[in-house]
Design goal:
alpha+beta; Beta-Lactamase; Heat Shock Protein 90; 5-stranded antiparallel β-sheet; 5-stranded mixed β-sheet; 17% strand
C-alpha cells in the first residue's frame, strides 16, 4: 500500500506529468517519423531499382534481338547473360513474338503476368512493377524487342528487392537510434523545463505553508509564468479580503463587547435601584410617604428598563431589514411624527416648527421605521433644547434626494463626541440617566436601510443640526 501511495503521489506531481507528456509526444513523433522514413526510403530504392532494370533492359535489347534472330549463338549469349547476372544479380528471359521463351536463366522463367508479356509482344508496350515469386517480392521490367519497326519479341529483367529492403532497414535503424537519442534529450529538457515551470508553484506552496500569525499578511512574490503570476495575484487579493473580513469581525466583536458592556451597565443600575427599594419595602425599612416614594422610583426605573429594552429591540428589528417598503409622502411622514411628540415637546415648553412643502415628495420605505428614526432625532433635539425655544423641522427635495433637517437651539455637540455621535451608546452627557445612547444609532441604521445617509453637525448660529438624506422615489402609491 505504501508503494502504491508513493506511486500515486509521484504521478500527481505536475513535473512528472509534464515529462511524461513530452516523452509520449516525442515517442509518437518518433514512430510516425520512422514509419514515414522507412516507407519513403524503400519506395525510393524500389523506384531506383525499376529505373536501373529498365535502363539495362533497353541497353541490352539489341543483344536480345540478335538472340531472337539467331545471329547470336547460345555460347556467346550465355556469356553475356552471365555478365548481366553478375552485374545486376537478376535473372532474365528472352521471348519471341509468340511469347515463347528462347532463353531464360536460373532454371525457370521470370514471373511475369501473361497479359504484360502479351502487351509487350503484340503492342510494344514497356512495363515495370512488382511481382511475387515464392513468398518473395521482385522488381521486374519488360521491354519489347523491335527490329526494322517490327516487334520480334520481348526482353524481361527480374531482380529481388532484398538489397532495397536491407538498405531501407539500415536507414530506418539509424533513424531509430537517432530519434531515440532525441527522445532521451527531449525527456531531459522536459524535466528541466518542468522543474522551472513548477518551481513557482512549489515556492507558492512553501510560502503558504510558512504563513503564521506574524506573516500571514506578507504578499506572495509574483514570479513564474503568467498563469502562476495570476494565481499569486489572486492569492494576494484573497489575503486582503481575509484581512478586511478579519478587521470587520474584530470591529464587530468590539461593538458586541461594547454593546454587552453598555447594556449590562444600563440594566444593572435600574435593577440595583429596584432591588434596593423592594428589599427596603419587604423588610419594613420604609413606610408611609417614604414607601410611596420608593414605589414610584421603582416604577420609574422599571419604565426606564422597558424603554431601554424597546430601543434594543427596535435596533435589532431595523437591522434585520425584512419589512416591506412602500411609497410614502414626506409631509404625511413628518406630520405623523410631530403629532406623536407633541405632548413631549409641550411638557418641555418647546415649540415644534414645521411648514409642509407645496409639492409633496415621496420616498420608498417602511413607515414605522422612518417614524421611529425621525422621532429619535426630534426627541434628542427636545431634550437638549432650552425651555421656551423652537425646534425647527424643514423638508426639501430635488430630482434625486429628499432632505429632512432638524435643528435645535441647545448647546450643540462637543467636538469629541461629534465624529462618533452615530455610534451605539454614545451620549452627549454621560451623567444623564434618561439617555441610552441608542437613539441616533437607530436613526443611522434606518436611513442606511433606506439607501440614504445621516449628517450631524453644529449649526453656525448655535445648536445641533441633523439632516436625513433619502433617495427620492418616482413611484406613487396605488
Amino acid at each position: 500500500m505504501k508503494i502504491l501511495d508513493w506511486v500515486r503521489r509521484f504521478w500527481q506531481r505536475i513535473s512528472v506529468r509534464l515529462v511524461v507528456s513530452h516523452v509520449l509526444v516525442a515517442l509518437i513523433v518518433m514512430v510516425v517519423a520512422l514509419g514515414i522514413t522507412g516507407l519513403t526510403v524503400r519506395r525510393y530504392l524500389i523506384n531506383d531499382q525499376f529505373h536501373t532494370l529498365m535502363t539495362r533492359a533497353v541497353e541490352m535489347s539489341p543483344v536480345a534481338v540478335d538472340v531472337v534472330q539467331g545471329n547470336l549463338y547460345a555460347g556467346p549469349a550465355e556469356l553475356v547473360i552471365q555478365v548481366l547476372e553478375g552485374t545486376l544479380r537478376a535473372r532474365l528471359g528472352i521471348y519471341d513474338h509468340r511469347g515463347l521463351a528462347l532463353l531464360i536463366t536460373k532454371g525457370f522463367p521470370p514471373v511475369i503476368p501473361p497479359n504484360v508479356l502479351a502487351q509487350a509482344t503484340s503492342h510494344g508496350t514497356s512495363w515495370q512493377g512488382l511481382v511475387h515469386s515464392k513468398s518473395r517480392v521482385l522488381a521486374a521490367a519488360v521491354v519489347p524487342l523491335v527490329q526494322n519497326q517490327e516487334i520480334v519479341g520481348a526482353f524481361v529483367l527480374e531482380a529481388p528487392l532484398s538489397g532495397a529492403t536491407r538498405t531501407a532497414w539500415s536507414v530506418t535503424s539509424l533513424a531509430f537510434v537517432a530519434e531515440l537519442v532525441a527522445v532521451v534529450l527531449a525527456a531531459l529538457v522536459a524535466y528541466s523545463l518542468s522543474k522551472r515551470l513548477s518551481w513557482p508553484l512549489v515556492s507558492l506552496r512553501q510560502s503558504v505553508s510558512e504563513m503564521g500569525p506574524d506573516r500571514w499578511r506578507e504578499p506572495i512574490e509574483l514570479q513564474g509564468s503568467l498563469e502562476v503570476e495570476e494565481l499569486a495575484r489572486e492569492f494576494n487579493r484573497m489575503q486582503e479580503r481575509i484581512h478586511h473580513q478579519m478587521v470587520s469581525l474584530e470591529q464587530e466583536k468590539a461593538k458586541r463587547d461594547a454593546l454587552l458592556g453598555h447594556v449590562t451597565h444600563d440594566l444593572r443600575t435600574p435593577l440595583t435601584s429596584i432591588r434596593g427599594f423592594l428589599e427596603a419595602i419587604r423588610d419594613g425599612v420604609v413606610d408611609g410617604p417614604a414607601q410611596a416614594r420608593a414605589v414610584n422610583i421603582a416604577l420609574e426605573e422599571t419604565l426606564r428598563l422597558q424603554r431601554l429594552v424597546n430601543r434594543l429591540l427596535d435596533a435589532t428589528r431595523i437591522q434585520s431589514g425584512t419589512a416591506p417598503k412602500y411609497p410614502l409622502p414626506i409631509n404625511a411622514w413628518i406630520k405623523d411624527t410631530l403629532e406623536r411628540l407633541g405632548p413631549v415637546a409641550g411638557a418641555k415648553e418647546v415649540t415644534l416648527a414645521w411648514v409642509p412643502t407645496e409639492e409633496d415628495a415621496f420616498v420608498t420605505g417602511v413607515l414605522d421605521h422612518l417614524v421611529e428614526a425621525l422621532m429619535n432625532v426630534l426627541d434628542n433635539a427636545i431634550k437638549w433644547a432650552p425651555r421656551g425655544s423652537v425646534v425647527e423641522v424643514q423638508a426639501r427635495s430635488d430630482a434625486k434626494e429628499v432632505l429632512v433637517s432638524v435643528r435645535d437651539h441647545g448647546p450643540g455637540i462637543s467636538t469629541e463626541i461629534l465624529p462618533k455621535v452615530l455610534d451605539r451608546f454614545v451620549t452627549g452627557d454621560p451623567s444623564r440617566s434618561d439617555s441610552s445612547g441608542l437613539g441616533l444609532s437607530i436613526v443611522a441604521d434606518v436611513v442606511e436601510e433606506h439607501g440614504g445617509q445621516v449628517r450631524v453637525s453644529n449649526h453656525p448660529e448655535g445648536g445641533a443640526l441633523v439632516v436625513l438624506i433619502l433617495p427620492r422615489s418616482d413611484v406613487r402609491p396605488d
